[in-house]
Each structure stands twice: as C-alpha cells, then as structure tokens.
Design goal:
3 strands; three-stranded antiparallel sheet; 80 residues; alpha+beta
Amino acid sequence: MAKQGSLFDTSDPSDTEQLAKLRANMRALLNKVGDRQVCKGPACGAVVWFARHKDGRIGIYNPDGSSHFSDCPDADKFRG
C-alpha cells in the first residue's frame, strides 16, 4: 500500500482520475525512453523497464513507474 500523500496514494477518491492520468503518462514516458524486458529473477518474471539516468546509472521500473526493487521478490539477488 502506498504512503498517504505519495504519488501512488489512492485513499482520496477524488484523486483517482488524476492518478490514472499520471500512470498513463509514466507508461508513455517509459515507452519512449526505456527498454522493455522481463525481470530475470527466478521467482519474479515481471515486465520491467530499464531507463538510463542522466548520471549514467540504470533504473529498473514497473509499468506504473515505481521502482521494481520495491516489490521484486528477488531484489536482494541483484544488489551488489
């Protein structure tokens, strides 16, 4: 569940339409700048997007724009 007041907070029903628009914008952005792949974690296999940041680091995101490491069951296997 998202923290109250965060981008993904759905506790206020009046924000539902705005949240849907934000998620659609995030998907469109990832489609333009990201590389769609499947997580290689043995217990995961989710569709993820790899996007390179300005500083050269690569971020791995779920289709809704949240960090894939926040919910990947294999996240610990990928951390250095």
